[in-house]
Amino acid sequence: MKFLLDEGMSPRIVELLVVAGHEAAHVRTLGLSSAPDPVVLDKAAETGSVLLTLDTDFGALIAHSHSVLPSVVLFRGEVTRRPERQAALLLANLDQFEDSLREGALVVIGDERVRVRQLPIPPD
């Protein structure tokens, strides 16, 4: 699977994902430091990547866009403090939602649970 890490994510996660057999890049290495969220989201879509982020704004952006891709994985809670923990949780649970990410999903990984919402998210 191919991942793009948002600015708030540690570049260390790129290394951990690559070692696990995935493709990964950080926005900094692509010259997108401090880029507006829509630009980052567009880059993820353009490269066929799943966006990994700590920023809840991406969930709102993807919901309001009614787009199917790119998929977004949002880390919430204490899990956000350690890159090794983030990578381990993603990799340990990826088989549960990998198909959903390929089809288009918003996945929230928290301290206690993982939630998956298929895209597009219908308007309320």
Can you tag this structure with a few keywords?
about 120 residues; about 20% strand; Rossmann fold; alpha/beta; single chain
Give structural notes.
- Helix 1 packs across helix 4 (83-103).
- With 124 residues, this protein is of the alpha/beta class.
- It has one domain: Rossmann fold (3-Layer(aba) Sandwich).
- The chain has helices at 12-19, 37-47, 57-65, 83-103, and strands at 2-5, 23-26, 50-53, 72-75, 105-109, 114-118.
- A hairpin with a 4-residue loop joins strand 5 (105-109) and strand 6.
- The chain has a 6-stranded mixed beta sheet with strand order 2-1-3-4-5-6, sandwiched between helices.
Tell me briefly what this model is:
This protein is of the alpha/beta class and 124 residues long.
Rg to the nearest angstrom? 13 Å
Average pLDDT works out at 92
Assign the CATH topology: Rossmann fold
Number of strands: 6
The proportion of strand residues reads 15-25%
- How much helix is in the residues? 25-40%
Distance between the termini: 31 Å
* Structural class designation: alpha/beta
Give the H and E element order. Answer: EHEHEHEHEE
Please give the domain count.
1
CATH architecture assignment name: 3-Layer(aba) Sandwich
SSE order and pairing:
Blueprint: E1 2-5, H1 12-19, E2 23-26, H2 37-47, E3 50-53, H3 57-65, E4 72-75, H4 83-103, E5 105-109, E6 114-118
Parallel strand pairs: 1-2, 1-3, 3-4, 4-5
Antiparallel strand pairs: 5-6
Helix pairs in contact: 1-4
